[in-house]
Design goal:
This protein has 9 helices and no strands. The chain folds into 2 domains: 15-140, Serine Threonine Protein Phosphatase 5, Tetratricopeptide repeat (Alpha Horseshoe), CATH 1.25.40; 141-226. By secondary structure, the protein is mainly alpha-helical.
Length: 226
């Protein structure tokens, strides 16, 4: 008797599963196909990205080799192309190097434009953008006003900022060039008293403070003599 009930129960389950399969089977098949196709697509995309990155890396090395060979023009052409269609992080890397090569060729304004382009790219890491701001400011130290340099990197000179030591030095050098000695002294003193200032930068700050004091003394002597 139990065998009969078992067979009936199995028939009922079989019939239930068949109905479920008839209803949902096509969806299960489609879902499985989507998983397979998605996995294959991801693998293909990953492979393509790796190839593109490898190709971009080769082009970047070719640009460096061109610089080493003295052909900066060829390097700039390669970097321009890589900036436009490179893969991964190579467009940004190429832009940094392109700006450096343009500056070396005397194209300071063009180099600053490249750094500004990096600094304005919101999708990039903040520190990467700040580095571009610092590089642009470095190129401006010999020609810009202190206000122009402060506008670019003044916030980076604030207490606690990672870039404060280098930013204060650039601002101090700009003030020194313009003979705004009190401002220059303030920037270099802030470097000297900061306990986290790197030793080599602290030593440079001490040298600059000595020069500033000397110039202020000379100015005072000249005023007294007159």
């Amino acid at each position: 008797m139990s065998d009969i009930f078992r067979e009936v129960d199995e028939d009922i389950r079989h019939d239930r599963y068949k109905k479920l399969w008839d209803r949902w089977g096509p969806f299960v098949i489609v879902a499985a196909l989507l998983v397979i196709l998605g996995t294959a697509g991801y693998r293909g995309w990953d492979w393509w990205q790796e190839r593109q990155s490898a190709s971009s890396g080769d082009r970047f090395v070719a640009a460096i080799d061109a610089v080493d060979a003295g052909d900066r023009g060829a390097a700039i052409d390669i970097l321009e192309g890589l900036k436009s269609d490179g893969a991964g992080g190579y467009p940004t890397l190429a832009t940094f190097r392109l700006a450096a090569e343009l500056a070396a060729e005397g194209g300071t304004a063009a180099a600053i434009e490249e750094y500004d382009r990096i600094a304005a790219t919101r999708s990039l890491d903040t520190e990467m953008r700040n580095m571009a701001r610092m590089r642009a400011a470095l190129l401006l130290v010999d020609t810009a006003t202190i206000e122009e340099v402060e506008e670019r990197i003044g916030d980076l000179a604030g207490t606690g900022n990672t870039w404060r030591h280098a930013a204060r030095e650039l601002l101090g050098l700009t003030a020194w060039r313009l003979e705004r000695f009190d401002e220059a002294r303030a920037y270099f003193e802030s470097i000297a008293v900061d306990q986290e200032t790197p030793r080599d930068l602290r030593e440079r700050a001490q040298v600059m403070l000595g020069l500033i004091d000397s110039r202020i003394g000379e100015a005072a002597d000249a005023d007294g003599a007159s």
